[in-house]
Amino acid sequence: MKLAVVVPAYNEEKTVGKVIHQIPKRIPGIEKVEIIVVDDGSTDWTVSEAMKAGAKVIRHKMNMGLAISFRDGLDAALEDGADVIVNTDADLQYDQRDIPKLIKPIIKGEADIVLTDRNVWKLPHMPLGKKIGNKLATWIVRILSGFPVKDAQSGFRAFSREAALNLNVLSGYTYVQETIIQAVFKKMKITQVPCKFRAREGDSRLIKSIWSYAKRAGLTITTTYVHYKPLEIFLTAGIFLVLLGFVIGFRVLANFLLTGSVSPYIPSAILTAILLIVGFQIVMLGLIADSINANRRTMERILYLIRKNSKR
Ligand SMILES: Nc1nc2c(ncn2[C@@H]2O[C@H](COP(=O)(O)OP(=O)(O)OP(=O)(O)O)[C@@H](O)[C@H]2O)c(=O)[nH]1
Ligand SMILES: [Mg+2]
């Protein structure tokens, strides 16, 4: 079996080499380990440090964002014939010696994806605001996906070849929540293992402020859910409005049948009309969104087959 370790990096000259050296090169069940650094337009010495440490480097001329780098890393690993893919950060926060533990369920064929749990509450170096943000985002992913994820923000993960072939990252910013929601909806088997997580030296490259992260990650989570469950969302909202319209309109209709007049319920009649029209339109939108969803599934199947049959 071949393992590819993907390391997205943006201006990580101080740590990327150490991360590469720390990655175990001999792992039971693995014949070959390849390290792929995805340099995202770094303006420091990240690329030369990564090459010096022996990694293959894929370069973006401009900063494209972490999610796009992750996607390109997965594609490169698949093209190189990886059977197992690990994604890790270049900032030395994760302990690469956890990799054998991480890939074990995949080698044994017991999981498609292995997530890690940093146990954020117990991390002495993580600020309280970040802990709360992490817990909140994890809770939202748990509710939306229906999977009891423990730490949705940890980027240290392992994927089987089949899982990587099936994932399609659409966000440009962060892939962590999107991939979990997709994996659950695509019925992949997910396992979770605890991992160590050190304090970061220097500033975060990804998170400028908790609010901007929350806004962008929130948008990604919402759109991912809508992409996969449009009918449920629109149908629920539309039917709710139509039913409300019927409840309010019942009195208007009864009065009209008895007296032949809408008065004195004209405001209720207007509200009923609005609720019925808007509700009906939302149901129609749901049906259109569901047709688009069917197209997405077809296209994902085509992409899967193209990836599966290319190179190797
Ligand atoms: N390719 C790419 N990688 C990025 C970008 N921003 C951050 N990274 C990398 O993604 C990994 C995680 O980024 P961090 O800045 O450590 O973000 P984080 O770990 O979520 O947050 P911290 O807890 O503050 O470290 C690191 O390896 C970064 O080098 C980016 O724009 N593009
Ligand atoms: Mg980090």
Give a structural overview.
With 312 residues, this protein is α/β, with parallel strands linked by helices. It is built from 10 helices and 7 strands. It has a 7-stranded mixed β-sheet, with helices on both faces. α9 runs antiparallel to α10. The longest helix is centred in the last third of the chain and has 44 residues. The radius of gyration is 24 Å and the shape is elongated. The mean pLDDT is 95. Bound molecules: guanosine-5'-triphosphate and magnesium ion. The site of guanosine-5'-triphosphate has 20 residues, from β1, β2 and α3. Guanosine-5'-triphosphate (GTP) binds next to β1, β2 and α3.
Mean pLDDT: 95
The topology string of helices and strands comes to EHEHEHEHEHEHHEHHH
Number of helices: 10
Could you name the CATH class of the largest domain? Alpha Beta
Number of distinct beta strands: 7
**How many separate structural domains?**
2
Task: Report a brief summary of the structure.
Pfam families: Glycos_transf_2. With 312 residues, the protein is an alpha/beta fold.
In terms of topology, how is this protein built?
Elements: E1 2-9, H1 16-22, E2 32-40, H2 46-52, E3 56-60, H3 66-79, E4 84-87, H4 99-107, E5 113-117, H5 128-145, E6 157-160, H6 161-166, H7 176-185, E7 190-194, H8 210-228, H9 230-259, H10 266-309
Parallel strand pairs: 1-2, 1-4, 2-3, 5-7
Antiparallel strand pairs: 4-6, 5-6
Helix pairs in contact: 5-7, 5-8, 7-8, 9-10
The structure holds guanosine-5'-triphosphate and magnesium ion.
